[in-house]
Amino acid sequence: MRKLPLLVALTLAAAVLPVAAMAADPLDAVRADIAKLTADVQTKHDTVVADAAKLEADAKSLVGTSDKQAARSTIKADATKLTGDWKSLLAVCLADRAQLHTDIEAARGTDKAANRDLQLLVREANLTIRATNLEMRAAVARARAAVVALRASFRTAGEQAPTVPTPTAPTP
Fold this sequence. Notes:
Blueprint: H1 3-22, H2 26-62, H3 68-107, H4 112-156
Helix pairs in contact: 2-3, 2-4, 3-4
């Protein structure tokens, strides 16, 4: 007996939901895209900083060791994980950014006040994302410096330094 009112309520909600989504403010779509992009950038930041910290710690702990093959395999595995995480999460962020750009173009209208709000909203999100990316790049630079120091320690010991490709950090 209770299933019928529940079924009716779900049916009405399903019928009203698409209509409400179409009538929503275009700024709401932009806000939702910014929230998703910010969350994905923060996820990328957390993952890459953790990978970079592990690479840095491993490189620092291996300075002065004589087993260059073990050092090479450890550093190579860490660098590969860092590069893979960075690239996969970058693809997610770029897809979010493309969606945000599409919604911003759709939200632009003739209303100057709404355009000003849109501009301020986008500028604030941009500054937040840039700050997060700079922190992430700094962590990768510290990890890269630790790997360079490890290579230098092998050179000073008279051994051939292991060559490990480290991910590049493109400038914004």
